[in-house]
Amino acid sequence: MSLYRHKPGKRMSEAVVVNGLIYTVQVPESGEGDARAQTAETLGLIDTVLAELDSDKSKIVEATIFLTDLTDFDAMNEAWDAWVAEGNAPVRCTVQAKLAHPDWKIEIRIVASR
């Protein structure tokens, strides 16, 4: 089994790669803006991490989206639909959750191949 921790920190790594699968979780850096803006910002962070690991959004196999308020579902989907690679939509679920920071409206967990 191969395992690589990308930008490890004291509490967590930016991503972990195991046997060719990339696992990452991203949240908006600023916590500002509405759900659409925070989703777009978070997806941009996912793009960056995947690029650093020689992957991209067309290789995402699974996404779990955590929203603090399900009334933001449509706004989140607007940003998601504009971002997701044509013909490469992953398996995805969206759940409501209380997130660790009060300004965050979204948190996204991704599994992608290299």
TrEMBL record:
Domain of life: Bacteria
Residues annotated as transmembrane: none
InterPro entries in UniProt: RidA_CS, RutC-like_sf, YjgF/YER057c/UK114, YoaB-like
SUPFAM superfamilies in UniProt: YjgF-like
PROSITE patterns cross-referenced by the UniProt entry: UPF0076
Family: Belongs to the RutC family.
Record-given protein name: Enamine deaminase RidA (YjgF/YER057c/UK114 family)
Organism name: Vogesella indigofera (Pseudomonas indigofera)
